[in-house]
Amino acid sequence: MSENKTDALPLEYSTHQGQMNIVGFWIFLAAEIALFSTLFATYAVLFGRTADSPAPAELFEAGTVLIMTFILLTSSFTCGLAIHNMREGSLKGLMVWLALTLVLGLSFLGFEIYEFVHYVSEGAALGSSAFWSGFFVLTGTHGVHVTLGIGWMIAILIQLKQRGLTAVTTRKVFIVGLYWHFLDVIWIFIFTSVYMIGMVV
Amino acid sequence: MQLDEFFVTGEPLIYAGMVSIALVSATVIFLLTYFKRWKWLWQDWLTTVDHKKIGIMYILSALAMLFRGGVDALMMRTQLAFPDMNFLNSQHYNEVFTTHGTIMIIFMAMPFLIGLMNIIVPLQIGARDFAFPYLNAVSFWSFFFGAMLFNLSFVIGGAPDAGWTNYAPLAGSELSPGPGINFYLLGLQLAGIGTLATGINLMVTILRMRAPGMTLMKMPIFTWSTLITTFIIIFAFPILTVALALMTIDRIFGSHFFTLTGEGLPMMWANLFWMWGHPEVYIVILPAFGIFSEIIATFAQKQLFGYKTMVGAIVIIAGLSFVVWVHHFFTMGAGAFVNSVFSITTMMIAIPTGVKIFNWLATLYKSKIIFTTPMLWTLAFIPSFTIGGVTGVMLGMAAADYQYHNSYFLVSHFHYVLIPGTVFACFAGLIFWYPKMFGHKLNERIGKWAFWLFLIGFHLCFFPQYFLGLDGMARRIFTVGPEWFTLNFLSTIGAFVMGLGFIIFVHGIIYSFRFSPRDIEGDSWGYGRTLEWATPTPIPKYNFATVPEVDSHDALIDMKEKGETTFDRSKLKPIHMPSYTGQPFIMMAILFFASFALVFEWITLAVIGLIGAIVMMFIRSFDYDEGYHVEVDEIIETERKARRMTDDE
Ligand code: HEM
Ligand SMILES: [Cu+2]
């Protein structure tokens, strides 16, 4: 509630409200971990239950997935650079790197949509079997999160343009950054436990 | 779609329901218009972000839900009063026990407690509001519209009928076509958003907004129990979110999570449901424990015995609550090893619970007890709840549970924990803190009548059910044989006595509103120990003009000794306040619309609604409203009036 400013801290931490928003977001991420854990557990339980639809090893393509992973990891890196520029006080740097992050996020989504369409055309859709239901909902939930993240970043970019670097805008950028890195971590788990295991087993 | 498919037709009881809904709505609209109160409703309530008002709205809605759930209960007890009764047919009976259970847990117990937390927790820690007041309003409206959606089902579309546990494959689209189960799934989903948000909000509030000097181990015990409850909410509710979403996708978009076809696993629903469901029962019991602890310390006029072990016990219970879920389906046949493990974890919960019981008894031991109504509810809780706990341990023995499972023995167990635990705590807490909410006490004489009727009714209703269960009566059956007549009849009488108790309780509210003397003391009962009693009555919108320095968990006792108040003129500064806004209400109304469309599987409309909600989020993102400040002059004036100070003070 109070807006006493402390100078020693980065701008996003400079107000009590800003600090609370950041703590609150960390707690929200804890809830997101619980959410994704449940989806991973569901996926694991349903693993192999493909009924008469294709098995994952027949469809998963190492190439596409590696590209997607590479894109998303890079976007996390550019997002980190954006925060770095923000801390240095460079609005322009921040906006450029954030925009780049956004473009990478969009291309990740493009690949994911392509991948989904491909699987469906091969006879592996949401309704094909328990396994594919688990697959589409787990990766799809991640994809929806990425989509929301992109929309959110656009909103923040506009606000940065309108208002520059303030305690409020920097806090928003910082939080969307946390979100973005979090989605990256989730993707690492999807990459290993869904695609890598799916390709060998 | 035909109109007669949309509305439920052909049931006299439901026609009566429709008529009463229409009449009540018409009356409310008429009264609001006649007394020109629309503006007041919007400006003072629907747009509020004040935690005290939001808390009051939570409690009022929860009382309404208690009424609805109670009517369901009485209908069931009427049907079971005599062998082969013809009051409800089997389908209708299924619907009624489903809505009863769901409403009582999700739309009554939890919101009631969250309402009390809303009002009391910021006051107990010396905060001026929640960490995120706007989000708090979002939470309330999400609960409210979720409850509305769920309650609509019995007149529009048809009520869910697969039990509050909603087991697959029964609840799947093959065996339960139509909108009924969708109402359950989406009503809970909508309300669940709010619960999770409240969990986060309260956790940040407690962690980051305590009065100076109030370390964690100096927090009042109700605040402690709230903090731990928010922890359970944050880790349990996402599981429910996922479970509901998966079943919704199964039903509407044809996936195979819980279906019998496509190699789905119906029992996975049971696992996911109880991985949330068991923590959920602790979400509704831990705050209740906190309320009882406060009341016992207050009216035994003693410091709570074993504060640290109390905190420890809550933490251990919360941890264990995540590792016992299988005890709800020992009979699934997971095997001796799995059942034994979960049997042991289940019985372990009784240990910290026992510690708490003994701490309460030790606090009462050799104390001078003041027998107010909140204290009566609390004293009745201890032995009644213990019966529930002991029978819980009996159920926890996996081998024995093969006999008890899904019998009336189980029904009696959970009512023995939920009613003396949660419901008594809600009543006790409401009466205890009532003066802080409304500026006057509830009439004690009427309150005692309500208490005794409810208590006697409760035991009369549920004690026989243990024996019915042992005699082999299964739960969720809609007719009873003559061999079970006597005990069932007694049980039904008990239920109606409880109903009478509730009516008298409500009568007490109305009576007190008209006749109770208005409170002048901040410390209404005169025995207050914690900061909520340090505020004047009525509580100013900013709660504390100056926030006191705290150094024990009975902060007010210290302040009284030192002669301090929360109005220290030398320390006054302008106070920052958040502005009221209609956005949360509108956003959730739009989501309500989207969910309603999804219930009927009108996908286009649902998508439109969803986009609307996203637009609202964008609007919020661009909203840089900074709130306003209450100036020092205004604070002085408010405080002088609230504290009835004379001019020269
Ligand atoms: C000593 C503590 C407790 C133990 C050992 C215990 C044990 C159990 C067991 C083993 C069952 C499943 C029985 C069956 O389905 O056959 C059960 C059901 C249940 N318990 Fe408890 N319980 C305890 C405390 C509580 C508390 C504090 C609450 C809530 C406030 C609660 C609420 C419920 C509910 C709602 C059900 C049944 C739900 C349903 O099947 O619809 N229990 N309990
Ligand atoms: Cu349980």
TrEMBL record, chain A:
Subcellular location: Cell membrane
Main location: membrane
Family annotation (PROSITE patterns): COX3 (PS50253)
GO BP annotation list: aerobic electron transport chain; ATP synthesis coupled electron transport
Enzyme Commission identifier(s): 1.10.3.-
Catalytic activity: 2 a quinol + O2 = 2 a quinone + 2 H2O
Function per UniProt: Catalyzes quinol oxidation with the concomitant reduction of oxygen to water.
GO cellular component, one term: plasma membrane
Membrane topology: Multi-pass membrane protein
Higher taxonomy: Bacteria, Bacillati, Bacillota, Bacilli, Bacillales
Protein name per Swiss-Prot or TrEMBL: Quinol oxidase subunit 3
Transmembrane regions: 21-45, 65-83, 95-114, 134-158, 178-198
One MF annotation (Gene Ontology) recorded for this entry: cytochrome-c oxidase activity
Keywords carried by this UniProt record: Cell membrane, Membrane, Oxidoreductase, Transmembrane, Transmembrane helix
Family per record: Belongs to the cytochrome c oxidase subunit 3 family.
Heme-copper oxidase subunit III family profile domain segment(s): 1-199
UniProt entry tagged with the keyword Transmembrane: yes
TrEMBL record, chain B:
Domain Cytochrome oxidase subunit I profile span(s) in chain numbering: 34-551
Pfam families registered for this protein in UniProt: COX1 (PF00115)
GO terms of biological process kind: electron transport coupled proton transport; oxidative phosphorylation; respiratory electron transport chain
Pathway in which this enzyme or protein is active: Energy metabolism; oxidative phosphorylation
Family: Belongs to the heme-copper respiratory oxidase family.
Source organism of the structure: Salinicoccus halodurans
Function summary: Catalyzes quinol oxidation with the concomitant reduction of oxygen to water.
Cofactor section: Cu cation; ferriheme a
Annotated GO MF terms: copper ion binding; cytochrome-c oxidase activity; heme binding; oxidoreductase activity, acting on diphenols and related substances as donors, oxygen as acceptor
Localization terms from the record: Cell membrane
Catalytic activity: 4 Fe(II)-[cytochrome c] + O2 + 8 H(+)(in) = 4 Fe(III)-[cytochrome c] + 2 H2O + 4 H(+)(out); 2 a quinol + O2 = 2 a quinone + 2 H2O
Transmembrane segments: 12-35, 56-76, 96-121, 133-156, 183-209, 221-249, 281-299, 311-330, 336-355, 376-399, 414-434, 446-467, 487-510, 586-619
Name of the featured protein: Quinol oxidase subunit 1
